[in-house]
Write a structure and sequence with these properties.
- The structure is a homodimer of 264-residue chains.
- The first copy, chain A, is α/β, with parallel strands linked by helices and 264 residues long.
- Chain A has 2 domains: 126 residues, NIF3 (NGG1p interacting factor 3)-like (Udp-n-acetylmuramoylalanyl-d-glutamate--2,6- Diaminopimelate Ligase, Chain: A, domain 1); 115 residues, NIF3 (NGG1p interacting factor 3)-like (Udp-n-acetylmuramoylalanyl-d-glutamate--2,6- Diaminopimelate Ligase, Chain: A, domain 1).
- Chain A is 36% helix and 20% strand.
- Chain A has 9 helices and 12 strands.
- The first copy, chain A, has a 6-stranded mixed sheet with strand order 5-6-8-9-10-7.
- In chain A, helix 5 crosses helix 9.
- Chain A starts with a helix and ends with a strand.
- Chains A and B meet through helix 3, helix 6, strand 7, helix 7 and helix 8 of A and helix 3, helix 6, strand 7, helix 7 and helix 8 of B.
- Strand 7 of chain A pairs antiparallel with strand 12 of chain B, so a sheet runs across the interface.
- Chains A, B: Keywords: Metal-binding.
- Chains A, B: Belongs to the GTP cyclohydrolase I type 2/NIF3 family.
- Chains A, B: This is GTP cyclohydrolase 1 type 2 homolog.
- Chains A, B: InterPro entries: DUF34/NIF3 (IPR002678), DUF34/NIF3_sf (IPR036069).
- Chains A, B: Pfam families: DUF34_NIF3 (PF01784).
């Protein structure tokens, strides 16, 4: 029997208490619609929506918001032509879009981190999973070697690194998305005796400035920022694999966007 | 007569109403201490503090917080060795440190934006100053040309750009620091008919994703992220020039840090 949108969402959220104030929602879309195909993506960008239509999918599962806002505020977009063209495309397409953010981060382990660790083949190094970070104990590598490995495995063209590239790393913390803030990251260095933290994104005047000072004091601590999308897209790719095995009768595709920034 | 710390701070804040909940403060330091020399900086990093001591300055004027936090939260740093070494250096040095953030952003025009515009020699192109952005009308340039000009004038090794580098720009918005958020930036494109926004830093899933969609729709809109420090350091450099002319008897130095990230 062909599953409905509601059936997919029930499967995705099964066993997880509704997160307080969750941003996760099906909009647009009806729970009763039968699924023709699914596209998962970091962000339901204009490109991703066009790809979903071309692939004959009628459900997009997106990690980040469709309209450039975590809380889906739109009042400042009502007269914006980019917004209007995208909203019209969605409305005319009959696509359902499910924002799948908070529930996925509450998987055990976090579904986004798990996808990243699998893409890196680093599950074998996990010492512990904390609610917002995974702690790894790895064979010693220099930061420069870690950076090259990350770029190769994740197929990303560049990374931002703070601290010395020659720092030797065995104890590594990984945090995805916007978890790179000072309050989240800095205490981990001491609590977990970390040499390196790999994060998605965070304020530049917090953790990076701490690492700058640590390095200037001669301490072996370093930070790699993957980029927000680069840290979370592998989790949405892994989600497509999971859905494929849970619903083998359905076509499920992960659609990857180009990096949002280029370095000039 | 040698001015005191209090005299400098009175000059810096003259005519500006105390900003609500301001983070600006002299800590450590006494208003009555006589100034031997001043260092201005984007951030009072370990390197900047050492330079101030080497230069014989006893007052650092820093734009961002000393301990990796806008609100100066420190409870999570108490056992951190990087924090302790830096705090001990400051305590033993006799340095005063004045955080000068909110007042400077309330200058007319914003003192940080004014420094950036001067460094770019772009004051002549200003159409209007808004509270958090300046709007420029410039001779038409491609984004790639603007990027090269920014790198050369500001002596920065790289920029992050979204949208097409061949976009032609005449109407340009400039926002410094962490003003790159979607709610702040996106409405400016329509309200001010902008082709390009140059900002410091902001969440990657907001404005950059908007620009990605705009470019994919074939619209000529682009975004350049300078980096938080890169966008605000010129304002602190210009502040050193102002102080030098206001207090010609005092040695005043701007100390520039290396970029906090390198691209790998």
């Amino acid at each position: 029997m062909t599953p409905t949108f509601g059936c997919i969402i029930d499967k995705l959220t099964a066993g997880i208490a509704r997160p307080d104030g969750t941003v996760d929602k099906l909009e647009p879309g009806c729970l009763e619609t039968k699924v023709q195909g699914i596209v998962t993506a970091f962000s339901a960008s204009q490109y991703v929506i066009e790809q979903a239509i071309a692939l004959g999918a009628n459900l997009i599962i997106t990690h980040e918001g469709v309209f450039f806002s975590h809380q889906d505020h739109r009042e400042w977009l009502m007269h914006d032509p980019v917004y209007k063209q995208k909203a019209d495309l969605i409305a005319g397409s009959g696509l359902g879009i499910y924002r799948f953010h908070d529930y996925l981060h509450r998987y055990t382990p976090d579904g986004i981190i798990e996808g990243l660790l699998r893409a890196l083949d680093w599950q074998k190094y996990v010492s512990s999973h904390q609610p917002s970070a995974s702690i790894l104990t790895m064979p010693a590598m220099k930061v420069a070697e870690v950076a090259e490995y990350l770029k190769r495995q994740l197929q990303i063209p560049y990374l931002r690194a703070a601290g010395s590239l020659s720092t030797s790393c065995r104890r590594v913390g990984i945090l995805v998305g916007y978890r790179g803030s000072g309050a989240t990251v800095i205490p981990l260095f001491e609590q977990e005796s970390l040499d390196l933290i790999i994060a998605g994104e965070g304020p530049e005047w917090e953790t990076p400035e701490y690492i700058r000072d640590a390095a200037h004091q001669g301490r072996e601590k370093a930070l790699i920022m993957l980029g927000h999308a680069e840290s979370e897209a592998p989790g949405m790719s892994y989600l497509a694999e999971r859905l494929s095995s849970q619903f083998p009768q359905l076509p499920v595709h992960f659609v990857k966007d180009q990096p949002v920034f280029q370095i000039v």
